[in-house]
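Researcher: Quick test of sequence recovery. Tokens follow.
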């Protein structure tokens, strides 16, 4: 018995818009920037743990911790950010979700350390906000329903 089925038309390849290309490039850039920020956070943390007198406070600040405490926070955060950057660069969904979360935490951590490293903190916060945007707007892995296809 043969089945009477008409051959189906091939599905046209999905064309990427300029916005999709920009977001995909932004995601690659976000992964690289997270890797760089993670490594620099590790260095920041080690420096703060090893030598408290390397950083000076710019004034009185409500959110003050001992510099050694900030060093440990940045060291641990930096290690986790580097691992997450690897996940983003490999294109994993867990890397993308963790990247958004860690970029938000990194923004908060750098806001709280503004008195110790004001220019670096402002730069790190700006990069983290860009990372959040890039990871949240990359729709290249989305299906018709708007949900990630993995």
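Model:
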């Amino acid at each position: 018995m043969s089945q009477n089925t008409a051959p189906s038309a091939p599905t046209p390849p999905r064309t990427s818009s300029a916005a999709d290309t920009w977001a995909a490039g932004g995601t690659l850039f976000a992964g690289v920037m997270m890797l760089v920020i993670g490594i620099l956070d590790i260095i920041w943390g080690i420096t703060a743990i090893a030598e408290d007198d390397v950083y000076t406070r710019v004034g009185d600040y409500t959110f003050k911790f001992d510099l050694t405490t900030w060093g440990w926070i940045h060291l641990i955060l930096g290690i986790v950010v580097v691992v997450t950057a690897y996940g983003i660069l490999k294109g994993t969904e867990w890397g993308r979700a963790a990247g958004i979360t860690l970029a938000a935490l990194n923004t908060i951590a750098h806001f709280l350390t503004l008195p110790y490293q004001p220019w670096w903190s402002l730069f790190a916060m700006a990069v983290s906000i860009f990372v959040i945007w890039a990871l949240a707007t990359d729709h290249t892995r989305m299906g018709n329903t708007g949900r990630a296809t993995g």
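Residues 30 and 131 are 5 Å apart (CA to CA).
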